[in-house]
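Question: Now follow the chain.
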Amino acid sequence: MAGDGMTAGKQRSRANGASAAVGGLRVGRVWTTEGVHPYDEVDWERRDVVMTNWRDGSINFEQRDVEYPAFWSVNAANIVTTKYFRGAVGTPQREWSLKQLIDRVVRTYRVAGEERGYFASPADAEVFEHELTWMLLHQVFSFNSPVWFNVGTSSPQQVSACFILSVDDSMDSILDWYKEEGLIFKGGSGSGVNLSRIRSSKELLSSGGTASGPVSFMRGADASAGTIKSGGATRRAAKMVILDVDHPDIEEFVATKAREEDKIRALRDAGFDMDLGGSDIVSVQYQNANNSVRVSDEFMRAVEDGGNFDLRGRMHGETIETIDARKLFRDIARASWECADPGLQYDDTINDWHTNPETGRITASNPCSEYMSLDDSSCNLASLNLLKFLGSDGSFEVEKFAKSVELVITAMEISIAFADFPTAKIGETTRAYRQLGIGYANLGALLMASGLPYDSDGGRAVAAGISSLMTGVAYRRSAELAGVVGPYDGYARNAEAHQRVMRKHAAANDEIRPQGIVATALAKEAAKQWQDGIKIGTKNGWRNAQASVLAPTGTIGLMMDCDTTGIEPDLALVKFKKLVGGGSMQIVNQTVPRALRSLGYPEEQVEAIVEHISDHGNVIDAPGLKPEHYAVFDCAMGERSIAPMGHVRMMAAVQPFISGAISKTVNMPETATIEDIENIHFQGWKLGLKALAIYRDNCKVGQPLSVAKTKAAAAEPAAEVEKVVEKVVEYRPVRKRLPKKRPSETVSFTVGGAEGYLTASSYPDDGLGEMFLKMSKQGSTLAGVMDAFSVAISIGLQYGVPLETYVSKFTNMRFEPAGMTDDPDIRMAASVMDYIFRRLALDFLPYDTRAELGIFTAKERAAQVQAEAAADAAAVDLEGMAASAPVSAPAGESMPVAGSPAEKAAPASAHSSTELLEAVLGASADAPLCFTCGTKMRPAGSCYVCEGCGSTSGCS
């Protein structure tokens, strides 16, 4: 990409570029205009950022009068302000403008690049600064979170989010592992480690005793991770633990988390709080790590052939035990079926694409499985927003994309020159091999907007072309950088292997079968980039051992206002949108009308289809929509969700063009069988994936579930069904009696002229436990019936029947007396039972539960009316709404107007896109609650991200 792009200067032999180079990069303009600073091209506005916990109304964060471009969404501004602005809130040192944040980072990169000779002249350095500034300002790409946290501050300049550790078979090494993990967690990142060097519990120690085995040491590391909260945040540490399939303790490792899930069920049934983040979940072990099994081709062939497989000792490689390969493979699938762990990592595939085998094998990954490289190493990430390169005519701006990759990969490379690392070993390895992880977000939105189904040959061809072009350009730029500041230190001993992997990538590009103009243009340009890169690299070497990964892009995806994260499809067709001032709206994803236009639908039909989606949450039977176009709008959740193999095939399409791997969980329905999971695991190997994790809906106890959810139990083999039934029979409900002295209150009431008294007694700290009704003289038939009814309800409550169950059964029950009441919160009652349980709901149930049942106080109803009136007023004032809650629209696409079918007030119970989807579909999403703001998170790769505050469930 010569011309006005970046071009390499003279070749240099230095490895680290510690002083100014004679040559340097020439930097041409891609996005900016000469003589105009990027900040001067946009309109800026001041906003107040106030973050609250919707459950109790408490304020989590408040900073007023912050400065952002007018086109940045409320959500993006809120997350950047709370997560990335540095300085104590309320002090002059606190950052208050996006300009300050971008300048702090970009100017650090420019200075480091100039000092180390990356640029041919100061003018080139200035263009580089302006180009990065423009791209960050316009949400074209983002660095990973540690860059925003640390670069340009007084803190250590840690730029990496992904770490891999190592541990040997010695107590010193094991204790070092504990310490190094703690340091990484303290810095807000996660790490992975392979424990296969540790002797099994079936091997002897030199002293004559038996070794503890890796699973026992996992227990100590898990406790440490649970104690150290990442980066001082409220989420727990993120970690990956891996064991090779030929380790003698592999069967114990596979069953570890499944057994703990049985324990969670038992404790839950005994009345303990075992929800994710519950007060009693800490008593369960191994919950702070993702577990993965490293399977070899030898093992997978044994599974395929139905043969045996040897488990080998760690000290001398002798066979300790011979097992049935298919039985172990099924045990892995069964454990995944029960609790989503372990996942699989395909060892021989990973190492076949390894550029540095002479240095050492790849044995482990980071917590999300996208970074796979040498032990004791790290990787810094950055991701491009693909939708920014989609033209209004449906074309993909191939040349601009390639030049943008050049700019971003150059910045990422410069960061290693000044970066700090949590341990000396990690710093040494990373500086010697300079692993980078460029990736992308918004693939799902790009495909939908282009009118391509996610699960289609056309969609996969575009995804493969983009991935190949991105990595090809990154490696070509790396080869050019090697000509300026030298190849990475470990290149010389790995030159042959590195070149072999580059040829494998290029050959894989030749296997792409493009469909359509866009895919053809991408594959053609990618082929050229690979050819040029290999030619330059053969001469210069490469500056970086690794170039690309596909990360979750959780928080940074929200920063870029992406509809979809990483390689994921759209979550659903409706989404939750925050407004300035705390309001919210339900909108149809803006990729939907764009997709309809690209498919050739006239504007009238577009509006009708969008209105249908707004009302129903899906495209089924949408007016005028052709059934053959339904697949374009398939999502991760909803009436038309993408099949599990659709996700696997997409991963397989892009994997040959990614240096590392892909952070993605293949979601499976609750009805999926163990055989289904076995097939997914096997197909992942056959299709050449490096890693694969599945999640069966509702398989974990520690997930918040909707009481309205009534899915059928998933099928499993008959023997296993009997096993589960035996467990259910073992656990009986336990009656929790009230103390002798208990708080209570009595309410007098009148329903249709009939008078009565309700006395409700509660546990000191745990809700309603007893009720009594009096409506007639003592000894009368009615008094006896009421006493018996009260006793029955009270005993049920004490045995754990939820109050909301009674409320749902007895409210709206109709019989005389009925009519007016004297209760200002319940003006009309269909019967005495209807009144009694509405009153109990108001007194003892939380607002969210009552809202689902439609029970509100008079004050709450009045507030709802006011909110609806305000929403209607906002819908009329179109200009005011656009100014207060702007959303950037792709080029050539008009914004939806408030009050149109695309937008309407969000349900009162929804506080995120996931909760909105639940409200629209009437089904529960199996996702954790955010510890910070209480909303349901949404999937992002193999973890979750909160749309409200940007917190993640583990991956930075």
